Amino acid sequence: MNIKILGTGCINCKNLEKAVNITIAEMNLEAKVEKVEDIQKIIGYGIMRTPGLVINEKVVSSGRVLSVSELKEIFLKY
Fold it and tell me: Cα dist. 4→10, 13, 16 in Å?
């Protein structure tokens, strides 16, 4: 699974990154996590609010920090 966290470094972006890493560890998943901070690349995904979460090149969330339980539900689909 390829996961991208879209954001320029705000506290919400960092919190989402932490939640993603916790979820991956708890679920024992093999995933590559990438932080995308370049604003042009973020805009390229069509989101207007950060943080954004992209899984396998599909935007699954933007503008909010997902909880670990929410992330687990999303990750199970991939």
Answer: 15, 11, 11
Cα separation, 49 vs 69, whole angstroms? 22
Tokens 């919190």 belong to which residue?
A: 15
- Class of the 2-76 domain? alpha beta
Q: Per-domain residue ranges for the chain?
A: 2-76
From the CB of residue 29, how many other CB atoms can be counted at a distance below 10 Å? 14
Model pLDDT for residues 33-62, shown as the tens digit of each residue: 999 999 999 999 999 899 999 999 999 999
Q: 59's torsion region: left (phi>0), alpha (psi -120 to 50) or beta?
A: beta
What's the Cα-to-Cα distance from 21 to each of 32, 33, 39, rounded to whole Å?
10, 8, 23
What is the C-alpha to C-alpha distance for residues 37 and 24, in angstroms, rounded to an integer? 21
Residue 6 in tokens? 């879209």
pTM of this prediction? 0.93
